[in-house]
From TrEMBL:
Pfam hit, one: Met_gamma_lyase
Name of the featured protein: Aminotransferase class I/classII domain-containing protein
Gene3D superfamilies assigned: Methioning gamme-lyase, C-terminal domain (3.90.1150.60), Type I PLP-dependent aspartate aminotransferase-like (Major domain) (3.40.640.10)
Highest taxon of source: Eukaryota
InterPro entries: Met_g_lyase_put, PyrdxlP-dep_Trfase, PyrdxlP-dep_Trfase_major
Source species taxonomy: Eukaryota, Viridiplantae, Streptophyta, Embryophyta, Tracheophyta
Length: 448
C-alpha cells in the first residue's frame, strides 16, 4: 500500500494496528496501578516525525506517479504479452521474444538507444565492469570524477588486490581520480580542466557508496557531462547508476551519459527480480558490453532464462517506481528521527533525494553493530540471525550486513550495511513500504 495525498492530508493518520502492547495507568476506583493495552504501532517520536513529513511524502508520490506513467507507456509500446514471460534453455535462442521486449522497454524507460538486461549479470559490479571493459583499451585512462569508487570496483580497476587477475590495470589502463570538494560534492573547478587526450572514460558514481558524501542529482550529472565533453568530445562518460533509478523523474542517459549500468536486485527490480543487472546507453557501446558478458560475436543473442525469472524481471520493473518511492520515504523518516536524536545524517532531513541510500553516522563499532542487529531482528526472513562483521569478497574493510530479505542481497528490500571503520556509518536502503522503517526505528530508539 502506498501513502496517497488524500490520507497524508488527514489530520491524524490511521496507523496500522500492531500487536497490543501494555502501559501502566492508575485505576480510578482504587488508585492502584493497572496494565492497559494500546494499539500504537510506532514509538511516539517516530509517529510525530512521520506526521511532520506529509509534504515531503506527497512530493515523493508525485515523482512516483510520473515514473509509473513512463514505465506503463513503455510496456504498452513494446506490446508486452504473456508469451514474453516464457523461459528458454540451453543456448536460449528460442525465448519467445522476451529478451528483445525487455531490452526495448528498459531502454525507453531510461532514455537510452539500447539496453541489455540479463539475469547472467551477477551484480551491479559485474554489469559496471562489463561496461568499463567495453569502453577502455590499453593506453587509455579511466578518470573517476566523484572521488574514490565503491569498494567492490577497486579490484576491477586494479587499485587494490593481486596483479594478473584481469583488472583494467593489467590491460594497461591507467587510473586517476578527482577528490571531492570540501562540501562533499563534485569539485567543479578541478573537473573543468581534468580531462586529458588519453582519458578514454570519465566515470561518475551517482550514489554515495561507502563515502560520507552527497549523492549526485541528474542535474549534477548533466553539468559534469557537459564539462567533460567540452574538454574532449571523444571521452566516453559512464555512470554507475546503482541506487539512483526512479528516484528522480529523469535518468543519466537522458542527459548525455554514454553508458549507465546497475543491478536488478536494487531499484529497477522492484523487490521482485531474483537476480541480474543491466547496461544501457549508445547502441554500439551496449553491444560492446554484451560481448564482454558473453563473447565477441555472440552479443545479445545467447543466454537461457528460466520462465519464472523472465516474468519476475518484467513485473519487478513495472513495480519499481512504487518500491523506490517507499524506500525514499523510509530514508526521509530515518533522517528525521536520527537527526533529532543527535546523530549526523546524510542526506540531511527534508532535502531532495537523489538515491535511496540514507547514511547515519553512529560513531563507534558497538553502535553500528547494534543498529544492524535491530534491523535484522525486524526483518521477515532470518530475524533470529545475529549479524556478524567480517571479511566479504570485494570489500577493503570488515563489513556488517543486515539483510533479512527474500532475495539474497536485495537492497531494494529493507536492509542496511556498513564498513567497520571510522566514522562507523550505517547505510540504509530499501523497504517495500515506509512503515517498515518506522517499525525498525521504533525498536531502535529503545536500544541506542
Amino acid at each position: 500500500m502506498t501513502a496517497t495525498a488524500s490520507n497524508l492530508a488527514s489530520p491524524a493518520w490511521a496507523w496500522p494496528r500492531a500487536a497490543p502492547s501494555q502501559r501502566r495507568t492508575r485505576c480510578r476506583r482504587c488508585a492502584s496501578s493497572v496494565a492497559v493495552e494500546t494499539d500504537l504501532a510506532f514509538h511516539p517520536d517516530v509517529s510525530r516525525a512521520a506526521e511532520s513529513l506529509q509534504a515531503e511524502f506527497r512530493a515523493v508520490d508525485r515523482a512516483l506517479a510520473l515514473n509509473s506513467s513512463r514505465v506503463a507507456a513503455a510496456f504498452r509500446r513494446a506490446r508486452v504479452a504473456p508469451h514474453h514471460f516464457g523461459g528458454s534453455t540451453g543456448y536460449g535462442h528460442d525465448d519467445g521474444g522476451g529478451r528483445e521486449a525487455m531490452d526495448s522497454v528498459f531502454a525507453e524507460i531510461v532514455g537510452a538507444e539500447a539496453a541489455i538486461v540479463r539475469p547472467q549479470f551477477f551484480s551491479g559490479t559485474h554489469a559496471i565492469a562489463c561496461a568499463l571493459f567495453a569502453l577502455l583499451r590499453p593506453g587509455h585512462e579511466l578518470l573517476a570524477v566523484a572521488g574514490p569508487p565503491y569498494d567492490t570496483l577497486e579490484e576491477v580497476i586494479g587499485i587494490r588486490g593481486s596483479a594478473n587477475v584481469g583488472s583494467l590495470k593489467d590491460f594497461g589502463v591507467a587510473y586517476r581520480e578527482i577528490p571531492l570538494a570540501e562540501d562533499g560534492g563534485l569539485d567543479w573547478d578541478a573537473l573543468a580542466c581534468a580531462v586529458r587526450p588519453e582519458t578514454g572514460c570519465a566515470f561518475i558514481q551517482r550514489s554515495c557508496g561507502y563515502t560520507w558524501r552527497k549523492s549526485l542529482s541528474v542535474a549534477d550529472i548533466r553539468r559534469a557531462i557537459n564539462l567533460i565533453k567540452m574538454q574532449n568530445p571523444g571521452c566516453m562518460v559512464m555512470v554507475d547508476n546503482c541506487y539512483g533509478e526512479f528516484v528522480e523523474t529523469s535518468e543519466p542517459a537522458m542527459v548525455g551519459a554514454d553508458l549507465i549500468a546497475g543491478s536488478l536486485i536494487k531499484n529497477p527490480g522492484g523487490t521482485i527480480a531474483p537476480c541480474g543487472g543491466y547496461v544501457a546507453g549508445k547502441q554500439h557501446l551496449v553491444e560492446a558490453a554484451a560481448a564482454r558478458l558473453s563473447a565477441p560475436g555472440l552479443g545479445v543473442e545467447f543466454g537461457s532464462t528460466p520462465g519464472h525469472v523472465m516474468r519476475a524481471l518484467f513485473q519487478g520493473l513495472f513495480l519499481a517506481p512504487q518500491m523506490v518511492g517507499e524506500a525514499v520515504k523510509g530514508g526521509l523518516l530515518i533522517a528525521e528521527v536520527m537527526s533529532a536524536k543527535g546523530y549526523r545524517v546524510q542526506p540531511l532531513p527534508r532535502v531532495p533525494r537523489h538515491d535511496i541510500v540514507q547514511a547515519v553516522q553512529l560513531g563507534n563499532r558497538e553502535r553500528l553493530i547494534a543498529f544492524c542487529e535491530v534491523v535484522q531482528q525486524t526483518c521477515p526472513v532470518g530475524s533470529f540471525i545475529k549479524p556478524t562483521a567480517g571479511e566479504t569478497p570485494g570489500y577493503a574493510s570488515e563489513v556488517i550486513f543486515a539483510d533479512g530479505t527474500f532475495i539474497d542481497g536485495s537492497t531494494s528490500e529493507l536492509s542496511c550495511d556498513g564498513p567497520l571503520r571510522d566514522p562507523y556509518a550505517v547505510f540504509c536502503q530499501g523497504g517495500t513500504h515506509w512503515t517498515q522503517w518506522a517499525l525498525v526505528l521504533s525498536e531502535l530508539l529503545n536500544v541506542i
